[in-house]
Amino acid sequence: MSGARVIDGQAAAAAILAEVAGRIASRKRRGATAPGLATLLVGDDPASQSYVRSKNKRASEAGMRSFEHALPANTGEAELLALIASLNRDAAVHGILVQLPLPAQIDSGRVIESVDPAKDVDGFHPLNQGRLLSGGPGFVPCTPLGCLHLIKSVLPAPAGAEAVVVGRSNIVGKPMAQLLLRESCTVTVAHSKTRDLPSVCRRADILVAALGRPRMIQAGWIKPGAIVIDVGINRVSGAQGASRLVGDVDFEGAREIAGAITPVPGGVGPMTIAMLLRNTLEACERAGG
Ligand code: GUN
Predict the structure, then answer these.
(1) Where a domain ends, among 76, 101, 117?
(2) Ligand 1 mean position to 221 CA, how many Å?
(3) What CA–CA distance (Å, rounded) separates 236 from 257?
(4) Domain limits at 59?
(5) Taking the complete model, does pTM exceed 0.90, yes or no?
(6) Most buried residue, 43, 147, 191, 269, by CB count within 10 Å?
(7) Which one of 40, 51, 108 would you pick to mutate in the ligand 1 pocket, going by the greatest count of ligand atoms within 8 A of its CB?
(8) Closest CA to 11 of 229, 208, 262, 257
(9) What number does the ligand 1 atom closest to the CA of 141 have?
C-alpha cells in the first residue's frame, strides 16, 4: 500500500482562486477597477491554445477583465512588439502574458524584454528575474510559485532542507532554485548532464522534477519520506491507442517511498493559473488601480 500523502493541487488552486475572486469583488464594491489580464498567443499549437483558453476562462470567472489576442503563426516580431507597446500603455491592462514558445521568426528574448516589468505577471522579464535573485519586490514565475505553495502546504518552514531541482529552464528550474534558496534550503540544480542523477536525487528532502521526460524519476531515486513535486506534463500513448498525461516521476512507484507527492494531472498544473491570477491582482493593486 502507498505511504505518501497525495498533494491536492486542484483544491489548493481553488482556494487561491476563491481568495483572488473575493478580493476582486471587494474592489468592485468600493468602485475600484477590476484587474485586466491580456493574453497573447501566436500560432495554433493545440497545447498552448488550451493553456491560454484556461487562463482567460479562470480570469473571467475570478471577475477580471480578460483581453485575448490570438495572432496567426506568421506574425512578425515588429507586429507583436507594437501590440505589446500598446498594451503597456493601456491603463485597463495590468498583466500581460505572452504564451511561450513563440514561432521561430520571433526573438523571444526581445519580446519578453518589451513587456513593462510592472505588467510582467509571468515574471520572465530580466528585471523581475534579477529581483528574484536579489530579493526585491518583483513578479515571480507562476509555476515555481505554485510549487513552493504546495511544498509549504506540507512543510511550512523548509529552512535547512536539502532541495534538489531537476531541470534548469528559465521558466521553472532556475526560478524554483532561487525561491528555495530564499527559503533557506540547501539547493542543488541537476540537469541532463548531471553525473549520477539518481544519487543526487536521493539526497533530496524536497525533490522538484522539471526535466520534461515522462516517468524518468524512479522510486529508487527518492529518499524515504521526501516531498516530491512533479512539474512534468507529458502526453503518452496509453491503452487502446488513447493518450494520457503523465509526469516526470513514476508516480505509482514513487508514492510508495515519498512522504508527500503531487499527482499529474491535478498537482502543479492548476497552481500555475492560480498564481498567474494572484500576480495579476497584485499588479493591479500596485498600479493603484
Ligand atoms: N509556456 C509554458 N509555460 C508557460 C508559462 O508559465 N507562461 C507562459 N507565458 N508561457 C508558458
Answers:
(1) 117
(2) 28
(3) 24
(4) 30-117
(5) yes
(6) 147
(7) 51
(8) 262
(9) 6
